[in-house]
Each structure stands twice: as structure tokens, then as C-alpha cells.
Amino acid sequence: MTDTAADLVLLADGPTGPGTPEPGPAAFGAGAVEEIGLLPMGRADAVVFVVGDAERAARRYAVALGLRCTAYAGPETGEPETVSYVLRAPGTRFVLTSLVQAIGPRGRELAGYLARHGDGVVDLAVAVPDVCYAYDYAVDRGAASLAEPYEVRDAYGTVVLAAIGVPGGTRHTLVDRSRYRGPYLPGYVPFERW
């Protein structure tokens, strides 16, 4: 097997769960990333889907695939445009989002995606040990800048995020949650229903 960035992301698997620190470069062994000259990544952080009915899809996936719903965001948590459910699987998360109302750029983007493609993946989030470095690395090599690195905070801590676009139109969010212990991202609350 050849070493690629995808191999590093897909093969990196360790303990997960709230309060579990994200793997850093040491997770791959001393010097592994430097030896092959690739962007240092931890693992897939989340696969974000836009769907017509997030609650229904989340219930279906939870039962069919044995996933656990761990977090929620929606109008009740201060997110007026969307409803999102976070499902945990060993090694990654699936986020199912549906549109409540299109009142801003994000809502219009999701509405346009649903009209053109129907349900589908809108974002592949990748855990990185240093968002600024990973963002600069990717943009310097041709990735489109969608959002420069920024921080979001809540009572659980701080998450650093950035977003890049690659050929084919897929959005990739770069995530460093090493200083965050919440259920998913700021704005999400632990899910305790069902």
C-alpha cells in the first residue's frame, strides 16, 4: 500500500467520545508525516450531509447502522436556518442537516444544493493539529479558500476552523478541537431524546 494523505486520515483511528483529545502528529509515530512530506492530518472529523428531513434521517441511520445520536443544533439552540443531528460511529461523526428557512448565505447555499442534487454530502471535515498551517499548505497548492482560519467558542472551550474547496466543488473544513470538550461544535447541545 502506498502512503497518501487519505491513508493517514482513514487509518488513524483511536478512542473517541466527548472529552477524548483528538490525535496529533504523534498519533502516526515519530516523524511519520515529515518522512512522506504530506499535510499533517489526524483523521476524518465529520461527514456532513444535507437532507430533506434531518430528524427522520437521523432516526433511520441510528437504527439501521447502530449509530448513537450525541448532539443537536437548531432553532432552540440559536441556529434559525437549520436543524442538525450528530451521529457517532467509531472513528468519525455523521452530521445530518436539513433546512428550516433560507434567510442567509448558508441557508441559500443548502437550498441550492438540495434543489440541484437532492440529499448528499456537503462537507468533509478533517481533524488537523494546526488549522493555520494546514489551510496555508492547501491554499498554496491550489485549494480554493472558502473561509480563513477562525475560532468559535462556548462554555466547552474553543474550536479552530477553516474551509477550503477542491476540484469537484466539495467543501473541506479543517478542524482543531484540541481545546474543546463539547458534544460537537459551539452551538450544539448534547442530545438526550429518543
Tell me what the structure shows.
By secondary structure, the chain is α+β, with helices and mostly antiparallel strands. Helix content is 24%, strand content 36%. The chain is built from 5 helices and 9 strands. It has helices at residues 5-11, 32-36, 54-65, 105-117, 131-140; strands spanning 44-50, 68-73, 82-89, 92-99, 120-127, 144-154, 157-165, 171-180, 189-190. It is globular and about 45 Å long.
Please tag this protein with its features:
194 residues, alpha+beta, nine-stranded mixed beta sheet, 5 helices, 9 strands
Walk me through the topology.
Blueprint: H1 5-11, H2 32-36, E1 44-50, H3 54-65, E2 68-73, E3 82-89, E4 92-99, H4 105-117, E5 120-127, H5 131-140, E6 144-154, E7 157-165, E8 171-180, E9 189-190
